[in-house]
Amino acid sequence: MKTDIPHTQIAIIGAGLAGATFSYFAQQQHIPCLVIEKSRGTGGRAGSKRLEQGSVDLGASIISFGDEELAHLRETLLKANVIERWQSAYVGVPKMSAISRYLLQDTPLLTGNKAHHIERQGKSWLIRDESYQPICYAENVILATPALQSAMLLASIPNSGALLQFANQAGSQTLPQWAMWVTTHATEHAPLVPCQHEVLESIIKDSDKPQRPASTTETWVIQASPQWSKKHLDTPKSEVLAEMIQAFSDVTGVEVLNAGEPHRWLLGRQVMALAPQPFMWDSTLNVGLIGDWLCQGDAEGAMLSAKFAFDAIGPTFDMNNL
């Protein structure tokens, strides 16, 4: 067996907004942590898709930052030029994934590593990947993943019944969402187009966001309604593309010049979980759950869940137990 396996105080599984925010607060208190992310990049549904010129935000398009619990963090991000005001809310600059990257800062980050199994090794947890190879040892584990993914990980942990049951219940309320980008000639449309259409839920002029590349054309992100997405979960992408483009033209009256392949967020939208609090923590197991599915169901909720969790359990971490 490998002898150079990392050993950390906190293993955070998931580098989306919840995991990145929790790691940020841990850094502020000099608590060792390690973030494990299955994808190549960070941000999760608040990540960005790279294009030939610039990028687009196919998931969370804005963050409200309206809750006073996040006021200090909001001002920190503004001062660091990581976010800017846009349409009565905030966006990451020059793209949404800048937020998670800033929050992670110098925290050790293992991308392209899918945590698959969590087991006891003495008083510590050993996290293994899909090939059952060890990723790291940790005294505490924070699952910052969608409810269904959290449930799958919890299923490998003995005596996690209460957490597992709740994650399973919440996971049954998760809905998919198709999203894609299109380009058009310059229009007079507002950056956020009101949308009451069977196919589409939102239409966002992504190129209008601050610090996006200048262009003679406009780039739009169109997001399908969760109900339509669920109905067309396994529809071929070519058909999804055609229907979403037609819906965009129906709503805006604008011709599409170019379009990207639709992206299916399989766990895209969370119907509110009836959580007793915005995070969950088992002090016997030293395992916790955070995420938007526990708080508000949006990007701000993901960050709030992480902050409330750290405020409550951060002081309990035993720094002498490594």
UniProtKB/TrEMBL annotation:
One Pfam family matching this protein: NAD_binding_8
Source taxon at top rank: Bacteria
Source organism of this protein record: Marinomonas fungiae
Record-given protein name: Predicted NAD/FAD-dependent oxidoreductase
